[in-house]
Amino acid sequence: MTNNTDHPIALYGFLRPRPERADEVRSILSAFVEPTRQEPGNLQYHLHEHEDGRFFLYEVWRSQEDLDRHNATPPLRAFLENLPAFLEGAPEGYFDTMLSPYPEAEPATA
What we know:
Residues 9-95 form the ABM domain. The chain has 110 residues and is α+β, with helices and mostly antiparallel strands. 33% of the residues lie in helices and 25% in strands. The radius of gyration is 15 Å and the shape is globular.
């Protein structure tokens, strides 16, 4: 799938932590939220905890380049490289080009 600058990239999915590592996974994922929101090209980054214990991530990036830069950050690389130790089974993830227009940020008012 290709992306152009008119259509941001959305990444979303579920992670099911091993029961004995759930608190650790919650802590790691929570620590990613604010730094990720400050990265160039990040439009949205949300973490949810589902009632069955799975974590749901929803991210929107301005471009594939911005997402690639994010995926290369050392803390995220370390987590992803050790993912099988943290999770029960493979992550359920989806990666798509957004077809709906993304609203422009409102200008700041004084």
